[in-house]
């Protein structure tokens, strides 16, 4: 029996609802499989905790999390706490502290889903965005001077280290080398961002030329790339992007898939020195929080990526097949997909598919 210790951080808003949904599914899956068990420890950290304690989590939260095999997170941030305070108080220190420098975010039109892109059907769009997850535009370095004066100045630095740039680009090449068409597109903006992005391009080309000559590589400026996600999303296998570019591209990816409520993500420390973290791309969705209608698929797909990471690709695949079967049947859908079902009804339907498969 494989027992997996999971630190659970539901966080805020619909994060609490989608995490509960994914846990219910994982528990049933574990029962059905009989070979794996999840030992959860739930941490009540987030904006409600902040209101009580004046901080998003206890000061030693990283050392608490470190002993776990994996982390499952819902969403962080809610009106009442400034977003930069909530995110820099919990989510972003985990990604950085645990060197989760690969943020893997698949973009795939699932069976049964209608993409808002005309003529794009399931199977047409299937690629992965590899987002740099520890540096870049999210440096937290900068400053503010002469607050309130007409000559006020605010500076926010962008930091690209050679180590940080090489490791994420190399990871993306390795993935592209295994893809059917062996294609890697790099997101750049070397025309305007004249120190960081030419450096990014240089590393992209150097690694491609010397280590992965078999991979077809090209760079596209981020503005044009955003347009291409809409106009020709079928040309990509793997896209590698800096922290901010990857962030924006993957909400767009979620939209291409039919709802950002379905987009998954894995924050990976490839060396496995620290725990990796699995969370959907979306946020706490204050506009629908508490209503029980959040789409649970982003969280469930992220859990499927967690199963892959734990060496149980068979179970990860079983989960996604069940999700797609339910979407294809079309009877149970949350409102973001045009339906009227609740989060729980959707999870029940996915669980029923899994039960049928194991029977
Ligand atoms: P959001 O992703 O929370 O919501 C954007 C829109 O998408 C909303 O209309 C929402 O209802 C919809 N949506 C999102 N997830 C959905 C789901 N599962 N099912 C159905 N509809 C869904 O983005 P936002 O409004 O910019 O951010 C809200 C808060 O969440 C902010 O505090 C932000 O900083 C935070 N946030 C956190 C994370 C994270 O923890 N990883 C990610 C993004 C945003
Ligand atoms: C995401 C989110 C976060 C990010 C925010 C909440 C800091 O948008 O995970 O995509 O920008 O990384
Ligand atoms: Mn985002």
Note down, in words, how this protein is organized.
The chain is an alpha/beta fold and 359 residues long. It contains twelve helices and twelve strands. It has helices at residues 14-33, 47-53, 61-66, 83-88, 91-97, 162-178, 196-211, 222-231, 243-257, 297-309, 313-329, 343-358; strands at 2-11, 36-42, 70-75, 102-108, 126-132, 142-145, 153-156, 183-188, 216-221, 238-241, 264-268, 276-280. The strands form two sheets. A ten-stranded mixed β-sheet has the order 2-1-3-12-11-4-5-10-8-9, with helices on both faces. The two termini are 20 Å apart. It binds nicotinamide-adenine-dinucleotide (NAD), 3-isopropylmalic acid and manganese (II) ion. Residues 247, 251, 281 line the site of manganese (II) ion.
Task: Please supply descriptive tags for the structure shown above.
alpha/beta, 359 residues, binds manganese (II) ion, binds nicotinamide-adenine-dinucleotide, single chain, 20% strand, ten-stranded mixed β-sheet, binds 3-isopropylmalic acid, 42% helix, 12 helices, two-stranded antiparallel ribbon
Quick structural overview:
The protein is an alpha/beta fold and 359 residues long.
Topology:
Blueprint: E1 2-11, H1 14-33, E2 36-42, H2 47-53, H3 61-66, E3 70-75, H4 83-88, H5 91-97, E4 102-108, E5 126-132, E6 142-145, E7 153-156, H6 162-178, E8 183-188, H7 196-211, E9 216-221, H8 222-231, E10 238-241, H9 243-257, E11 264-268, E12 276-280, H10 297-309, H11 313-329, H12 343-358
Parallel strand pairs: 1-2, 1-3, 3-12, 5-10, 8-9, 8-10
Antiparallel strand pairs: 4-5, 4-11, 6-7, 11-12
The protein binds nicotinamide-adenine-dinucleotide, 3-isopropylmalic acid and manganese (II) ion (MN).
3-isopropylmalic acid binds at residues 77, 87, 247, 281, 283.
């Amino acid at each position: 029996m494989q027992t997996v210790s999971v630190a659970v951080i539901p966080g805020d808003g619909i994060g609490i609802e989608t995490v509960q949904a994914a846990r219910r599914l994982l528990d049933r899956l574990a029962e059905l499989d009989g070979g794996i068990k999840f030992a959860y420890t739930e941490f009540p950290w987030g904006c409600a905790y902040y209101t009580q304690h004046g901080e998003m989590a206890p000061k030693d939260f990283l050392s608490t999390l470190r002993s776990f095999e994996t982390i499952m997170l819902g969403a962080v941030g809610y009106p009442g706490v400034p977003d930069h305070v909530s995110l820099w108080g919990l989510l972003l220190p985990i990604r950085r502290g645990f060197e989760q420098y690969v943020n893997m975010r698949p973009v795939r039109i699932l069976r049964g889903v209608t993409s808002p892109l005309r003529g794009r059907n399931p199977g047409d769009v299937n690629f992965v965005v590899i987002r740099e997850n520890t540096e870049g535009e999210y440096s937290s370095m900068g400053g503010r001077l002469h607050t309130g004066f007409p000559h006020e100045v605010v500076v926010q630095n962008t930091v690209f280290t050679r180590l940080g740039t090489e490791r994420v680009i190399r990871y993306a090449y390795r993935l592209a080398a295994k893809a059917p068409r062996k294609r890697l597109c790099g997101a750049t903006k070397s025309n305007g961002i004249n120190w960081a992005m030419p450096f990014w391009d240089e590393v992209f080309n150097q690694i491609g030329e010397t280590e992965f000559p078999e991979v077809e590589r090209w760079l596209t400026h981020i503005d044009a790339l955003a347009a291409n996600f809409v106009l020709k999303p079928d040309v990509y296998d793997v896209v590698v992007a800096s922290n901010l570019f990857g962030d924006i591209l993957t909400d767009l990816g979620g939209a291409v898939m039919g709802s950002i409520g379905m987009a998954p993500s894995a924050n990976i420390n490839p060396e496995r020195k620290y725990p990796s973290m699995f969370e959907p791309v979306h946020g706490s969705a204050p506009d629908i929080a508490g209503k029980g209608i959040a789409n649970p698929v982003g969280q469930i797909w992220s859990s499927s990526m967690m199963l892959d990471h734990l060496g149980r690709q068979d179970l990860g695949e079983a989960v996604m097949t069940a999700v797609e079967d339910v979407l294809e049947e079309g009877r149970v859908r949350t409102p973001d997909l045009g339906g009227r079902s609740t989060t729980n009804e959707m999870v029940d339907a996915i669980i029923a598919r899994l039960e049928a498969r194991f029977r």
